[in-house]
Amino acid sequence: MPLSRSLSMTSLSGVLPSWEDDELPVEDLLLFEVAWEVTNKVGGIYTVIQTKAKITADEWGENYYMIGPYFEQNFQTQVEACEPPNPTIRKAMNTLIENGCQVHFGHWLIEGSPYVILFDIASAAWNLERWKGDLWQTCNIGLPYHDREANDSLILGSLIAWFVNKPNVICHFHEWQAGPGLILSRSRKIPMATVFTTHATLLGRYLCAGNTDFYNNLGRFNIDKEAGERQIYHRYCLERAAVHCAHVFTTVSEITAVEASHMLHRRPDVVTPNGLNVKKFSAMHEFQNLHSTSKARIQEFVRGHFYGHLDFNLEKTLFFFIAGRYEFSNKGADIFLESLSRLNYMLRVRNDVTVVVFFIMPAETNNFNVESLKGQAVRKQLWDTAHTVKEKFGKKLYDALLKGTIPDMNSILDRDDFTIMKRAIYATQRHSLPPVTTHNMLKDSTDPILSNIRRIGLFNARSDRVKIIFHPEFLSSTSPLLPMDYEDFVRGCHLGVFPSYYEPWGYTPGECTVMGIPSVTTNLSGFGCFMEEHVSDPAAYGIYVMDRRFRSADDSCNQLTQFMFSFCQQSRRQRIIQRNRTERLSDLLDWRYLGRVCVSAVPAIHFISLMRGRVHSPFYICSSSSDSMTIFDTWFSHFIQIYFLKVTIAFNFKYIYKNIFT
Q1: Which of 191, 216, 353, 402 has the most beta carbons within 10 angstroms of its beta carbon?
Q2: Gene Ontology cellular component (predicted)?
């Protein structure tokens, strides 16, 4: 049964631009991609839309727009403001601005330079209570006043439903934060095609964080009860409503498709694995050179961080890392720390290799800690001292050789030089252990990583062969402490470790793969399952897949420890060969390849003959049962499958749209 239009949405129609008067030709079919992470880095969705932007913009050109929330700092640093080239877009923006809602437009400064339309949430907050009433009247979902994220998503969704009010439009919504826009657009019967992609189910993330045996009990959960107990029932309702309102529902991996079937009661229509923009080098040694250069920069940081305790050989030191959202159990940081404790014992007994492990997970801090900054200052001072003495030594040696004599090494350096060097050595003395974290943590006593470090006793002591550095902030080349971008940092490491229990896809091991860096993943991540399906022996190519589904936690921990210990036993030549083999898998993760692997579409001729003339069919909200979809919904399902093929493979389907809409 179709839902009635809400009162305030109906009242807005009087101030909306008349799209019928400005009807665009079929060639100007518009694609809007909506996500909370447009220009706003929070997690993996940012990487999805950022890497997909180029291939989409190349095909759709000026008809492709990204929509998201406006954050002043992000806009100033990532967006080049400009005027919309499309007059109807400009007219719709002006209408919102005239009604007190600020809208910003520009080029997002990433590869492909797509247009972005960013809505200022704060400027439209005055209408929040009214829009809450609309949402309740539309689908009986109420939002509590204290959930700011849900309220902000409703404001964004209402602005989108206000803004996008024309036919010949495809809207692709990512995650539950964009869900209200889809729900309200469908309730207003706007004749546009809608796609909803879930990158992880909301309840699944919460359940896994609560240490439940999630994947072996998918069919046994009381969904409503579990969501209510975690006080996210309203968010879950938004997510589920968006899933059932969408013409096409997609997700990023088969394991998440199974999860969504149970959690959201709808099987995804299309599985679209996440890809990356893979840049191939003309020569194999080029990416190896980049690894060497970035590794040298990490070594410089380590020299400063461990000053006074640098009694290990950096040439025999390996750099491991884990990165991502600070979800301690979901990302596998718990099992990783326990495995590091066991690895430390094995290396102390049987090996002379040292492992420095970086935890790159953003947490609440108030600044860098003094010891970390002091270490880098001491390192720089030592470098300046050594450089000064080297210059004097080199000049005297040069002069002596010009005279045809071998200089006396005892006289080539005077007493002042020795005094300077002794002072520099004394400056490196420290009476405390190198810090395990680079920042002052706001919740030091209760922080999960720090608490477990205290439990296992890895405090960077001289006797420890495993050293830990917790960097609770995203990496940046402008940082005074570790001035490296994430990509450069990954290239400089030897192994990425991502033993996630809940990872619908897993961009971090994928990024390692395209840079030729071996990684550890699990059979509960979309990436791990994808590699096991497409590569006969992933470990031979530097992709170590842990079993976290059918083994106990202790067995999984032992398996991870063995993976890391075996890696530590490799020679430098063996690691170089393995990096070459890992880099060869990068084509599997290219957006262009994934389009051919995962996207299904109906034949174009059959599509045109079957769907011609049905653009103005009735437009209904989908219920929980797929049988309730109208013929229009079925049409758009095929339509969006063609859209996915168009985006990922970049075939030209414009003649198809021309035949459909004429």
Answers
A1: 353
A2: cytoplasm
